[in-house]
């Protein structure tokens, strides 16, 4: 657990590795295009005891690498240990998604893996052996998610435009697909699927620019001959984004999503939706009787002056330099009593972090600062340690601000420069940069990262994963490269050469 003074720390790059064995096992055309070899997904095992060394799996086209992370006080010691290597020997397999489950009887960790062969393969991660295979999709599978409420329930998003809800319980062995989300939901390949913390709601998104929210019925506890089919989502919109949507996730009852070409992650809410309300039935979902509607919602069937929109955009996080790349996933660390941290890696070798707990504290500090300026009898408010002051520098001394080989926050710590100081006691440049990172008053503004780390060489981030306790963050991407970030390291100076921050 971090000390209270360290709770505001954002991760530092600790290590990285490149797994190259895929090259010699893939088809000749892939061997000739090694730049296309990559890790597409990474997930931490969520069921380990508190305080234990976290374990993650990284999925590439033919292999799944399972690693354990251990804290070290020596910065030259790699904290990452490979504990299992699984190879998919199916000729047509090219995997891009994974998620965790566990055997309800033995507690052995199960690792679900999927890709373009339309199968969900369930491996025993302890032995590395294939335990079972789930079939039914009519196209490749691009994403997997495990229900936070039940480790036996897994969702898969497919090119066949459907989401399947699978049960790994023994009672459903003959018919593991217990629910099918399809019908009028999507018209093109799906790229992302996510569960709500309650396990009763699912988000789906993909190439058709549509984001759907599905309310799940009670899933069966006994064998069923055929799955329940849900034809209509309870919320559907193509207005949140203007391009294909490759990542969507719940943040409480709010939603995070991103789309290709937009260079932003959007935080938004569905008006009228609350997970504390009774779950709506499938019959209450709006149909497509009016095809001209780009958004339809069971939570706001009709608009009014009090509720003029079906959804509201809240914040936008700036993710520059993504270009034409898609299949790039963010990840939000969100746990009770911990700061929510959003992480994302772009197409230009840079990982970005935002601490959402900083926003209300910044607003309070600025409000207290203004009050103290009005009433000189009030003591000046205490500035948060992460609000760094930008000191005015002459152009020829700008190089002094750079420290190659180390990551750092987005600003330089320095004393206030009396030249250019405003009535709020800080220079205009400082106030402007604070606003760019922490001001949430403009829902259409782009919030810059609170910290960003650049690495040497070309790197396209594909997926981010957080350890259950938030100490570790792993980013995977092209060339089968994995970046290991750490918070609260015992050796505060531990870092990896070749990384720089801005």
Automatic annotation (TrEMBL):
WD repeats lie at residues 134-168, 183-214. Gene3D superfamilies: YVTN repeat-like/Quinoprotein amine dehydrogenase. Residues 289-302 have a biased composition (Polar residues). The keyword Ribosomal protein does not apply. It comes from the Eukaryota. Residues 279-302, 393-424 are annotated as: Disordered. Keywords: Repeat, Transcription, Transcription regulation, WD repeat. InterPro entries: PcG_WD-repeat, WD40/YVTN_repeat-like_dom_sf, WD40_repeat_dom_sf, WD40_rpt. SUPFAM superfamilies: WD40 repeat-like. Belongs to the WD repeat ESC family. This is WD40-repeat-containing domain protein.
């Amino acid at each position: 657990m971090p000390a209270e003074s360290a709770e505001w720390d954002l991760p530092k790059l600790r290590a990285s590795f490149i797994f190259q064995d895929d090259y010699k096992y893939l088809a000749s055309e892939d061997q000739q295009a090694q730049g296309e070899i990559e890790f597409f997904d990474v997930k931490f095992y969520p069921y380990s005891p508190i305080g234990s060394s976290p374990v993650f799996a990284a999925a590439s086209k033919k292999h799944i690498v399972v690693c354990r992370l251990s804290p070290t006080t020596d910065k030259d010691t790699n904290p990452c240990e490979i504990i299992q290597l699984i190879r998919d020997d199916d000729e047509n397999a090219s995997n891009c998604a994974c998620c965790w489950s566990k055997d309800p009887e033995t507690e052995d960790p199960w690792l679900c893996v999927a890709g373009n062969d339309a199968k969900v393969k369930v491996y025993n991660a302890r032995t590395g052996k294939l335990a079972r295979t789930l079939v039914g999709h009519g196209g490749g599978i691009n994403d997997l998610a495990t229900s936070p409420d039940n480790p036996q329930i897994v969702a898969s998003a497919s090119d066949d435009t459907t989401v399947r809800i699978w049960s790994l319980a023994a009672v459903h062995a003959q018919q593991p697909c217990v629910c099918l989300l399809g019908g009028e939901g999507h018209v093109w390949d799906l790229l992302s699927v996510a569960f709500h913390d309650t396990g009763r709601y699912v988000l789906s998104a993909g190439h058709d620019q549509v984001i759907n929210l599905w309310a799940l019925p009670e899933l069966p506890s006994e064998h069923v001959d055929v799955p329940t089919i849900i034809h209509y989502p309870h919320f559907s919109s193509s207005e949140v984004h203007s391009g294909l949507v490759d990542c969507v996730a719940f943040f409480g009852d709010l939603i995070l999503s991103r789309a290709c070409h937009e260079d932003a992650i959007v935080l938004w809410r569905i008006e009228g939706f609350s997970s504390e309300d009774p779950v709506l039935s499938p019959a209450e979902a709006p149909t497509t009787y009016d095809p001209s509607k780009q958004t339809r919602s069971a939570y706001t069937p009709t608009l009014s002056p009090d509720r003029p929109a079906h959804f509201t955009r809240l914040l936008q996080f700036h993710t520059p330099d993504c270009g034409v790349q898609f299949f790039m996933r963010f990840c939000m660390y969100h746990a009770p009593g911990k700061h929510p941290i959003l992480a994302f890696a772009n197409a230009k070798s840079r990982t970005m972090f935002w601490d959402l707990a900083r926003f209300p504290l910044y607003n309070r500090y600025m409000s207290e600062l203004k009050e103290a300026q009005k009433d000189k009898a009030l003591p000046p408010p205490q500035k948060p340690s992460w609000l760094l002051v930008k000191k005015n520098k002459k152009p020829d001394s700008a190089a002094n601000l750079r420290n190659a080989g180390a990551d750092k926050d987005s600003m330089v710590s320095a004393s206030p420069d009396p030249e250019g100081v405003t009535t709020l006691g800080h220079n205009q440049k400082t106030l402007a940069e604070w606003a760019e990172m922490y001001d949430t008053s403009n829902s259409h503004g782009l919030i810059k990262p609170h910290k960003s780390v650049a690495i040497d060489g070309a790197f396209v981030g594909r997926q981010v994963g957080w350890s259950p306790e938030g100490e570790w963050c792993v980013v995977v991407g092209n060339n089968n490269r994995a970046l290991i970030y750490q918070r609260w390291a015992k050796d505060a100076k531990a870092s990896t050469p070749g990384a720089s921050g801005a």
